[in-house]
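Before the break, one more example. Copy the sequence into your notebook; we will annotate it together after we see the structure.
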Amino acid sequence: MSTTVATKNPSPAPAAAQRPRRSLLGQVLARPEIGAAAAAIVIAIFFLAAAPAFRSLAALSTVLYASSTIGIVAVGVALLMIGGEFDLSSGVAVTTSALAAAITSYQLSLNVWVGVVVSLVVALAIGFVNGWLVMRTGIPSFLVTLSTFFVLQGVNLGVTKLLTGTVATANISDMDGFESARAVFASTLSLGPLNLKVTVLWWVLFTAVATWVLLRTRVGNWITAVGGNQASARAVGVPVRKVKIGLFMGVAFLAWFLGMHLLFAFSTVQSGVGVGNEFVYIIAAVVGGALLTGGYGSAVGSAIGAIIFGMTTQGIVYAGWDPNWFKTFLGVMLLLAVLVNLYIKNVAARRV
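Here is what the structure looks like once it is written out:
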């Protein structure tokens, strides 16, 4: 006598077990730069209404140029912050790069392109040393790069005074290669009635490349991972040391580029400039959505933060207000940006 055992087909997994899809609004709010974009629109409308001169194409050119000189380095600083580190030497590193190029070319009577290449090597070496010390010693990057800040500030002043007898480099506008270098780093492009500095185009390019790296490459995943949790990232095979050293060198490269612009725009460099700009770069990144704790942010956000800075610096002038209040406004804007970005991030986390 045989028995028949009835079998049941396994029931499909309940729909509730599937990962819910985030709503369109939730996806928009989850973007790091959304808060900065809203602030930029409000600030633009405000200055367009308060300062009639702000509405001209000349004003637009000025705002974009001011934004680009902040945004170029802020792109690298934003990536570094996403990776969980800071660089307080980026401001003086800009000046170091310009001084290295000018002094090498002038003192040795070389083509200025030789100075450009030498200064690039110097800048990348500074970035490498910063990253290597952070990873090798375990000392927070805040302290390592603060030390580098003071070292570079002293070197800039001391070496320049020793070699030139003054605190500024000699004018190099009549040296071989100057015109071609100026075309690359400091030329002006006429687009109909709009005159744009070439730094604006370079800024857009650097932002686009950084965005592509963050969103479309494995390196971008590594950057976010090491900023979110370094130990977990190392446990799954992320080359933490290489990523972080590379990020410091990325900041150094962009600082070098801005230094070249300053040198070829003005033909000479004051050895004491650049102090304090490192905080402006960090502010642009934070206003653009980068978290101080790492693991979150975007290159586009840093660009929007730089635009906010450019609109504010120039808008105050066009409105005829006392520029002495600008630093106060900058501090308030930073605090509000952090609060708004935190609020938007929490709202986005609750929406699905």
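The two ends are 58 Å apart (CA to CA). The longest helix spans residues 240-266. Try to locate both features in your own notes.
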